[in-house]
Amino acid sequence: MALRLAPASKLLAVEKAADPNNLATVLLDNYIDFFTLFFNEEKTAYDKAKVFRSQRLAQLDAAPKESPLRLFAKAIVHLQWAAIHIKFNEKWAAGWDFRDAFKLAKQNQQQFPQFSPNGMITGPMEMVAATIPKSMRWLSSIMGISGTMQHGSQQLEAFLHASDNWAKLFREEGIFYHCYLQNYLLNQPEKAFAFIEKQDLDLVNNHLFAYMAANLHLTNKQSWQTQRIIQQRKVSADYLTTAVWDFEMAYARLFHLEADAPVYFNRFLQQFKGNFYVKDAWLKLGYHYYLQGNTQQYQYCMQQVKQRGNTLADADKRALKEAQSGWLPNKLLLKARLLSDGGYSKEALALLEGKSANDFADLAERLEFAYRLGRIYDDLALDDRALKAYDYTIAQGSQRTEYYAARSALQAGMICEKLLQFAKARAYFQKAMDMQNHDYEESIEQKAKAGLERCKGK
């Protein structure tokens, strides 16, 4: 799990030669393909690797039926390929693999209830199933995928507290799921970071943990921590070569308006063979040049947004929409946005102090100002001020296509949830879900649905 794939491949080759019937090598081969394809998204590698999927499943099916590893290993293969298929826009294949993983894991749980790693799969899958956006709900209904946040979380927690040898073997993978779910679905990033610190995870030699921590810090507006982790990780040819490090560093540098951000953006865009977040990366690189007054480079980046990548991710959809519109961002609001996204809240607030929504002639800019101010106050734990700004944005922007109103409702719900005002929180989360035809609709809806699940019965 440390992403030292080169030595891992060599060890597997030795083991296969010594014991061709060792089915553990079949599962581990799939892990190597999963990490390589998930992080790098290279189409030629995908086309070569996907022929092994059915072969590996058939090999694992030949394992002794009395072994709890038989169905469990098959469930892992299906789950990994579901994630891979999503990266390559094969949604039906992803849906069926997710379904098969879910059913196999549930079946294994029934047959071998004492096998603790079952919860490592069934727990996260139930949590994800509970928050599927309405656009995908028909698919989950057809495929029989269901679950609740509470039950899923309990299963994963039970696995993490198990101390048997099977639990120890899969513990690192469970930790990875746990931290991401704590952050994205349970809305408890502080618990995720406390867990990382308490477990003393190796962020230097284990690149999977390093990526996870760097990514979570970036998501939670702690870009200086992202930079520290990336810079301190061990660099060696043993590890998976991937452009994601430059991707994360590029955003972290841009979020403090650093002059060297293009170095990392350009390196990522030159080396990355996939499509996810490519449009957004070009947009963000364009922002750098726009703030520097380099209109020619900015326009070039907007052309690349139109031509490169795809629109599977909400951020890429938003990037394409902006590039096609020809709209030029307000430089003051853009600077405040980037600084706020990086966690430099006081610097962002200093830019907006003394101004009001009425200082902006365009309604879209007035909404963005109120929303940005709300997010900054939110990050500074000035809850009353944040709620006032969010309420203004919701009232003025709920019928528009910008995401400001829907995201304001989501953030307001989180504040009320934190304050144990669950009825208000549910009302805000429902508002976020009810708004339609806006940017980032699916991701905001999923987070709002997770919020409703958390507040249920409270």
Automatic annotation (TrEMBL):
Top-rank lineage group of the source organism: Bacteria
| Name this protein carries in UniProt | Tetratricopeptide repeat protein
